[in-house]
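In response to a reviewer's request, we include the raw inputs and outputs for one of the modeled complexes. The two entities were modeled together in a single run.
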Amino acid sequence: MSDATARGIPPTAVSTTSTLENKTGSWKYIRPVYRDRVAPCNAACPVGIDIEGYMQLLQRGRLKEARALLMRENPMPAVTGRVCHHPCETACSRRHFDDAVSVHAVERVLGDVELDTPPAPAAPRTQTETVAVVGSGPAGLACAYHLGRLGYAVTVYEEALEAGGMLRLGIPEYRLPRHVLDKQIERIEAQGVAIRCGTAVGVDLEWDDLGADAVFIASGAHRSRAAGMENEHAPGVRSGLEFLKEVNAGARPSLGTRVVVVGGGNTAMDCARTALRLGAEVLVLYRRGRAEMPAIPSEIEEAEREGVTFEFLAAPVGARTVHGHLAGLECQRMVLGPPDESGRRRPVPADESPFFVVADTVLTAIGEDADLAFLRADVTLDNGGIAVGELGQASGTAVFAGGDAANQPRTVADALGSGKRAAIGIDRLLRRRRGDAVDVPVEELRFGPDGNVSVTRWRDDDPVRRESPANEVVDRADINLNHFGHAARHPDGFTVDRESLEHFREVNRGLETAEALDEAGRCFNCAVCNECELCLIFCPDVAIARRPDGGFTIDLDYCKGCGVCAAECPRGAIVMTKEGL
Amino acid sequence: MRKVIMGNHAVSWGAKLARVEVISAYPITPQTQIVEELSEMCASGDLPARFIKVESEHSAMAACIGAAAAGTRAFTATSSQGLALMHELLHWAAGGRHPIVMADINRAMGPGWNIWTDQNDTLSQRDTGWIQLYCETNQEVLDTTIQAFKLAETVDLPVMIILDAFYLSHTSEPVDIPAQDVVDAFLPKREAPVRLDPDDPHAFGGLVRPDAYMEMRWHQQEAMARARTAFDEIELEWRALVGRDYGAVERYRVDGADLVLVTSGTITSTARAVVDGCRDRGEAVGLVKVKMFRPFPTDRIRAAVRGVPRIAVLDRNISPGHGGIFAEEIRSALYDVPLDDRPEVFGFVVGLGGRDVTPAVVEDVIARARAAERPEREDLWVGVRP
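The model returned the following structure tokens for the whole complex.
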């Protein structure tokens, strides 16, 4: 070798001059740009949580910052980690690879850790205005929490003797232990939020006496709908929601041996599983099929696992009594007809004679309405709920609304999201009154075109670095699955035994912290650079380099626009743009 | 440490002891176990090497070339069609003077689709510029694998170590595995004369005009020539460390023989036994094993058979339209030997596609070589049904 080199011919065909002289960048007509976009989970979250953001922090072992990022948008992760219907997991890109990331379980672990650490100090009262919130359910508490953190003095008025709204009144303890709820509410109060229980606005306290600069109405939907059957007021036939409120308040009513629950939503599932815990045999009667049930699928599965039986395509005709006592329900077999306005197939009576089911108690759970008689007249209703604008405005004045009282989907997550929207709406209104020019378009606050708003974006103080961000949801085709390895999802840990059934103990044990961190590791970080360095490895021109502050630089003198980095990026965080644009 | 291991794993152990730094391979029977074992060594952390999964043998060799250009010790393994798919990059590896080591399990080319042994896959790559070393036993496989890295890095040429499908790849034998410190003393970390370096970028493999191309090929030829002596020196050093060597060409009971068999690969072991039987019966038959095929050990071959009246070359390969490839190369090597010292060369084509070459086949070869008045114009195919 050395003799060859000595004679002036290199040992191999290697250029004598540096290739830096050949500026291959002059060839390109498209160039790569690092562009953090929006992950599908963030866009799907009705609360508006930067899920991808906290997953990435967890992957880097920055647990505290992950919790802080989560708490920016969601005041009660220990609650939502347990009871949310987690549409984020339905949207999760990983679902098309093996199984969705167990976002709810990660959130629950973060929330539980949060409950055991001292609360963050309350934000200083920097604003002079005060806000009144009517109702202490998830919507009201969320609105109060966010306004408190924005520097407002907020008072929440609650008709019941304890705060929590439907979280306390409607959701059974085996799904949401009261000590979790209590601690979560205490921490919201620690943010400087005052809660006045046993105060019904319009009854105990006149609207004019609220003395607030803005009002948020989140009074919920508490009036059970009538089942519309014969003899509905017979003894032994009662409202499922009233039954749940009674049990959740500590009572243990006697139901007899055989309980029939009428309905297919979450209230019906809660009634069925609660009745089971009171020792009854439970049958759920639902007029459509299993696929049409509006309840969260996991709630249906758990009810089934615990021993609840189902009678699908069956509607109650009327309650039948013997000697003044309930004997059971006469039922009509149904078949599914064409879809109705909700998109589900409408049940119509089948050409069959009625049949009879024995029941000592019938619990009706076919939906709730908002009772809005206490309201002032200057709000408009839509479909039984208060009509609201995109930031919760219920009228041209300083009245805002959200949660189940407003016309929106009735879930805990949607309630939390509506509270946040209204908090931003109220802040915007009050600041405009002060003469601030606040003209950020609401679209820029949303995660993608249809997601909920981000209070972090509203405050414009995102702790996460974003590379030339764009508010568009990444397309599934932009996720390069070739770079991911399969990893099984950690299933939630369930305990179903006689003892836990008798004692209303929490059935879902969730995940251990290590398992939750594992789940976070399964996150693809869709649409957001996590510095995996594949771009750097694949760049055939070695034109990509690490930046000292994180992220990468592209040496445009040598990037020839081949697009390999964008194609290989596992998460769609690099886009190719036309030169000169 | 002595272990009973199959030939495939003897390769893996050799590569591990050589502290290979980059492995890139694509699976193919009967080679797969080599890289399977290496991938497990990498996964367990026993071997701190980068294992690059690829989508084809072409890419496997490309990755090895890149790794070698960057100055690391690179290894791959393949067989048959996989080797054929690498063809273009075999030239690139050799022309670029990248000291890659590759194990090839000799497997017949399809069609007819066949996973058993013959030498046509490696012999088809004769002119790509790779050193080729054929092995007889699992011990030789392990030793040669380690030696191959040293040889490759001494002359900056890639080395192919070659072993028979199943007879070696999947057959277990006791193998002495040298201690790591012994191998470390023998084979230090690679020092590349020219290195691909992103901080001082140069173009590799660019256009070379006629005024320099021929010189580059001449340097390659000189390196091949040096490989002959370098291999001898490496074997001496290895022998001093572990007490074993093999020789580019081995003479076995040749003295006084009136007929010498010439073999390569595992047929050698069978022929050894047959030669021993002949000698026991007082028949003067000897054996020459050819281990090194490129560079061709012309002088060694001449010396090994000088004065022997007849040699019979057993070829487990065929150059269609010509003859057995070892026989042709040996005829060529002997052509300049004065007529009095030049043996008559009888060529026999045997054992294609993994057909067994039994002692009876070897005895048939001996009988036919003895009975003929002079060599046939074409090599004889043994055991072929009409």
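As requested, we also summarize the result in words. The longest strand of chain A covers residues 325-339. The interface with chain B takes residues 1-2, 4-5, 7, 9-20, 22, 542 of chain A (CB under 8 Å).
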